[in-house]
Design a protein that fits this description.
With about 475 residues, this protein is mainly alpha-helical. Helix content is about 60%, strand content about 5%. Strands 2-1-3 form a 3-stranded antiparallel sheet, covered by helices on one side. Strands 4-5 form a two-stranded antiparallel sheet. A hairpin with a 6-residue loop joins β4 and β5.
Length: about 475
C-alpha cells in the first residue's frame, strides 16, 4: 500500500508536465543551485546581476539586466541597487541570502546534485524549473506515505489510505506544495516525519531523538515549525520526561545551526530573513507592519472565503473538526492528538495575524497549507465511525472527490495572472481585496469556466520561462572573465 500511494500521488503531481512559476519559490531554487555551483548560501550582484536593479547613470535605476547595463558596468558606470524581494542583505557588503532561509534548499540538494550530473541546472532553462518541481513532487508524495504509516497504527489500512489521499490530492499539497520548491513542501514533509517518529514508529529508543531532529529540520525550513515542536515538548514534559530529554537533544543541533546562521548573516541569532523583509513587503501591500489584528476579515477569510477559504477548497478536512471533538471525549485514547490540536490553533492564529493572510497571488489557502498534515491526523478519532456508517462513508467520499476536483482544476489551469490580476484588479491591492469575498468572481468558478483558456495561458507562460535561459540568476560572475 505505501508504494502504491507514493506512485499514485507522484504520478498525479507530475502528470500535468507543468511547474508553478513565481518568485516565492525562486529564493529556494536559487540557493540550491548556488550550493551546487558555488558552494555558498550567499548571492552577490556580480554573481547574479539579473536579480538586482542597476544604476547605470546618475539617478537612473534600470531593471532588468541587459547588454546596455553590462557595458555600463564594464565602463565603471553601473552600480547595483535593491535586489528582488526574495533576497535580503546581510551585514556583509554585497552579500545577500534568501529571505526564506536554508531548510528548503538543503532538503532539495540531493535532487539538484543528481540532475547536475547531467546538466548545469542554472544554465538550462528546462531543468532550472523542473528540478525543483521534481524535488517538490517527491517530497509531497513521501509526506502522503508518512501520514499513511502513522494513521495505520490507529485505523484500518483502507481508511488510513483514504485519509492520506485527502491530504495528497484533496488539499493545496497538490496544487502548491508538489508543483514548486516552496518552504511549505519540505516543512510538511518534516512535520509528517517527526510525527511518525513520535506516534507511528512505536516505542523505540531512538524515536524521540529522531522526532526532535525532524522537527528541528522543519524549523530550518520554516520558523513556525517551532509551534508544533513546543506543543509536543510540553506534552512530553507532562507525560514522559526521560523522552523529553532525548527529544530536546535530537533537535538541539538544528537549533544551533539556525542561530549560528542568523547571527553570522544578520547579527542576531533570533532574527530571520522573513522578519526583515516582512515590514517592507507589508507596506507595499498597504499594511503598516508585518503583523496585524484584522481578525474580523482574516479568520472567516481563512476558513470560508470563496477564493481562499480552507473549507471551500478542501471540505474533506471538515472531518478534522469532528475528530478533534471526539478526541476530547475519549481523552485516554487520543490524548496524544491534543498537541496537534494546539499546534493547529497556533498556526491558524499566526496566519490570521500575518499581513497578507490571503497568501498573495496563489491558488487556495496557501497560508494554511502547513496545517494540512495536522488536520488529516486529527481525523483519526472519527475515521472508525466513517468506516462503520455507510452515510458517513458516502459523505467522506463525496467531499474527497470535490476537494480533488478543485485541486485538479488548480494543478492544470491555475496561472498566476489570470484571476489574481483579472481586469487589472490586483488581488493584493487594498482597493480590490473585496474580490476575495465575491461568489460571482470566485477563483474556483473562474478556473472551472475558463479551464482551457487558463491552461493555454499557463502553457504559454511556462514556455516563456523555459526559454528565458539568459534570465536565470546563477549564470555569470562579473568579477571573473568569461
Amino acid at each position: 500500500m505505501p508504494h502504491l500511494l507514493f506512485a499514485v500521488c507522484l504520478g498525479f503531481y507530475l502528470l500535468n508536465g507543468d511547474f508553478l512559476y513565481g518568485n516565492d519559490q525562486s529564493g529556494n531554487m536559487l540557493i540550491s543551485a548556488n550550493l551546487i555551483k558555488h558552494q555558498s548560501f550567499t548571492i552577490s550582484p556580480y554573481q547574479a546581476p539579473t536579480l538586482f536593479g542597476w544604476e547605470a547613470y546618475p539617478g537612473a535605476e534600470v531593471r532588468p539586466w541587459s547588454e546596455e547595463i553590462r557595458e555600463a558596468y564594464e565602463q565603471g558606470l553601473a552600480t547595483p541597487t535593491q535586489p528582488l524581494y526574495y533576497l535580503v542583505e546581510t551585514r556583509r557588503p554585497n552579500e545577500f541570502v534568501s529571505v526564506f532561509g536554508i531548510g528548503a534548499p538543503l532538503t532539495a540538494l540531493p535532487v539538484y546534485a543528481l540532475v547536475s550530473l547531467f546538466t548545469d541546472v542554472s544554465a538550462d532553462g528546462f531543468w532550472w524549473w523542473y528540478t525543483p518541481k521534481l524535488a517538490a513532487s517527491l517530497l509531497t508524495a513521501l509526506t502522503v506515505v508518512l501520514l499513511f504509516q502513522t494513521m495505520r497504527r490507529f485505523v484500518s489500512e483502507p481508511m488510513a489510505a483514504a485519509a492520506a489521499l485527502a491530504f495528497g490530492v484533496g488539499t493545496s499539497a497538490w496544487t502548491i506544495s508538489s508543483q514548486a520548491l516552496w518552504q511549505h513542501t519540505p516543512f510538511s514533509f518534516f512535520l509528517a516525519l517527526g510525527i511518525w517518529f513520535w506516534l507511528g514508529a512505536g516505542e523505540r529508543r531512538y524515536s524521540p531523538y529522531l522526532c526532535g531532529a525532524a522537527f528541528g529540520m522543519a524549523v530550518l525550513c520554516r520558523p513556525t515549525g517551532v509551534l508544533l515542536a513546543a506543543c509536543v515538548g510540553v506534552y512530553l514534559l507532562i507525560t514522559n520526561r526521560p523522552g523529553l530529554l532525548k527529544y530536546v537533544l535530537g533537535g538541539l543541533p538544528f537549533a544551533a545551526v539556525l542561530m549560528i546562521y542568523n547571527h553570522y548573516y544578520f547579527g542576531n541569532p533570533f532574527t530571520v530573513g522573513q522578519q526583515i523583509a516582512g515590514v517592507t513587503l507589508a507596506e507595499a501591500k498597504g499594511k503598516s507592519g508585518a503583523w496585524q489584528m484584522d481578525f474580523a476579515r482574516s479568520i472567516p477569510g481563512l476558513l470560508m472565503s470563496p477564493s481562499r477559504g480552507l473549507f471551500v477548497y478542501s471540505p474533506v478536512l471538515l472531518f478534522a473538526i469532528a475528530g478533534a471533538v471526539m478526541a476530547w471525549k475519549s481523552l485516554r485514547t487520543f490524548a496524544v492528538l491534543i498537541p496537534l490540536q494546539a499546534a493547529f490553533l497556533l498556526h491558524f492564529l499566526v496566519a490570521a495575524m500575518w499581513y497578507d493572510w490571503w497568501g498573495g497571488w496563489t491558488f487556495g489557502s496557501r497560508t494554511l497549507l502547513d496545517t494540512g498534515v495536522l488536520l488529516v491526523l486529527l481525523m483519526i478519532p472519527v475515521l472508525p465511525r466513517v468506516t462503520a456508517k455507510p452515510a458517513l462513508r458516502a459523505l467522506f467520499a463525496a467531499l474527497l472527490l470535490y476537494s480533488a476536483a478543485v485541486q485538479v482544476t488548480g494543478a492544470w489551469s491555475y496561472n498566476a495572472r489570470s484571476w489574481n490580476y483579472r481586469n487589472n484588479a490586483d488581488i493584493d491591492h487594498p482597493e480590490h481585496r473585496h474580490r476575495l469575498w465575491s461568489l460571482g468572481d470566485s477563483q474556483i468558478v473562474y478556473y472551472l469556466t475558463h479551464f482551457g483558456e487558463g491552461r493555454a495561458q499557463k502553457q504559454r507562460q511556462i514556455r516563456s520561462y523555459v526559454r528565458a535561459v539568459d534570465k536565470n540568476p546563477v549564470l555569470v560572475d562579473l568579477r571573473q572573465p568569461e
